Amino acid sequence: MLRWARDRAREAGLRSVSPGTGSALRLLAASVDAKAVAEIGTGTGVSGIHLLHGMRADGVLTTVDPEPEHQSFARQAFRASGFASNRARFIPGRALDVLPRLADAGYDLVFCDGDRLEFLDYLAESLRLLRPGGLVVFEGVFANGRTVDSGPQPTEVLRLRELLRAVRETQELVPSLLPVGDGLLCAVKR
């Protein structure tokens, strides 16, 4: 089913998480015994399948995406992967419009794979959404190696650098940068 979801992503011009990133997501969800996970950027369900495999059997993935069509692909992929329909809650809409409506300290893990220009805003929302000991995870922070390149960079890369600095400097988080896929920035909320 992962292959089907990856094919749908490629056809839609979306990037999906690498197999290594997927394995890391599964491990991270299991390590916090995740019952409630928020995902920003449903895509076609590739990362969601990995997260669901790592979550508790009674866990629920809340996934947000501005494109309902992507979410319908993900819904099919989850069902075909054997997950009951009550294991995922699909919320169509812009992440920064939806996240404020989610419960404070109600999540064990927040996975951010949406608009990289909004990652700093996702960080602020994630700190509110996470319980103490919860994890926030950002995908794609290497930006194909551009975050460490010293040359002039597009706004997206400058924002990623701001995110990396903010996560490193906040006393509320214990961060680590995992070199899987295009870079996975993980941080535990104290």
TrEMBL record:
PROSITE patterns: SAM_OMT_I (PS51682). It comes from the Bacteria. Keywords: Methyltransferase, S-adenosyl-L-methionine, Transferase. The keyword Transmembrane does not apply. Transmembrane segments: none annotated. This is O-methyltransferase YrrM. It comes from Streptomyces pseudovenezuelae.
